[in-house]
Fold this protein.
Amino acid sequence: MMTKFIKLIAGLLLAGTYVQAQTTVNTPGTGVNWNMDSLVAHYPASVQLSGTTYHVGAKIVFSPTDTFTEHSDAYVTFDSAATFEFKKSIVQINSTGTAIWLPTDTLKSFLRIRFDSAVSVNIKGLALKHSNGISFINSDANLDNLNLSRTRHTGSNPSGALSLLNSNLVIQNSGFQESQRSAVSLSVSSGSSLKLQSSIFRNNGTSNGNYPQINIGTTNANGVLIEDCEVYGSYPKVGGLAFLNVTSANYSAVVRNNTFSKNRYGIAVNGRGIHATITDNVIDSNNIEGLPMQGGSGINILGDSSLNVIAANNQISRNLWGVTVQKSGNNGSPQVSFGRILPVEPVDTGGNHFWSNGFNDTLYAIYNNTPDTVWAQRNRWDFEILDSIEKTIFHHVDDTALGWVMFDSFYVTPPVDTGTNVRNVLPAGKFAAVFPNPTTQQNAVVQSETALTALRIFDLNGRLVREEQLKSVKEYSLPVHSFAAGAYYIWLTDGKQQQVLKWIVTQD
């Protein structure tokens, strides 16, 4: 063990002799396929091998047509002014376990890894520790099992540990921990796309600045997909996921089946031209700063009418604000729906569960700070009774200058489950019908094959116009004179399933 330790120290001392002779080494650009061993053989003044540790003492630039292929679990150390840059080259890193790249002195960092107009990049099983991060410029890449930890920000480097410019990346099964600023960043003019799947973000933003862990400016036509990820924070100024588009570009963003917890805010969709679909996420306890005037939203939406957000089947809980909606500029308010009965859209189904969002003993499920309508039908709330739900929503009722939140108490809450993420929405069934339909003069009758326990009737704006708790009846009479001409939705349950009937009332 002592001999191995002495060899390691000797290797580091040898590497140190090259610190004063840092240079930039360019490979010849003749189609050579490089790996760590061939770099040692051809550039012994810049790359050495001591035991099982490779040491890089220069900036190695892989010229166009050259490639870099490494299939070992290489342990590589870099001097502070050393790095790899790939220009119009092909890169294949596929370790059998995890290759580790880190600085010679972990109190310092090494230069940013750069991919510039790379022909092809495939990386699997690579950990970068204490680096200045990675930049992708005009480069497409597939990254699997990439781990960036304790990335530092220096000088004019991009803010994100991993940044994109005119690039298309697929990232999966990866981890990002304790970066000084954002973990992944697409700038306001990035022109890139991102598919981010099954990855973990934890405690990024160690500088405690206003940098979200995942920071999306603009994208190209391919947009952004973020799914099956976990985003956990611990720094009061750092948000979870933020979209900010201030350009004329339009793009789509799909955020589904993720967890956002203990950040300054969960998800922010700001600016213009973004069509965001937010589904099946757990957005919980994003209240770490504790200042409701500066953050704490599970979902924050800010922009003009070109901003479109649909959210369904999310758990939004224990944030200072469940959802906040704000207008910016003179081009209308964001178009926002957390569930809408009409028009029927496959994704816009509601099913969100709002609970325990608030502060100072006041619940704030949704705060509509715009003059326009926000839709929120078919959701679950802290309460089932409409008057009680109303107290958790801030809108036209509270300030006549504001628009409405069109909500209902659509779902009957089943028995509480001990699993914190279980929504327990009653399954849909087909067990009832209403006759006659349309209805003109005579009363209509709801007939059911099973015993009904509750009935609610909504108009087309989602307002509840009738509610009945039933005692196991199979027929219910609807007096036509009690309803104005128009279309209605009749919601029924037998306690085990639910069904919605469309009912038309016409005049003589």
User: Anything to note?
Assistant: The chain has a mean pLDDT of 90.
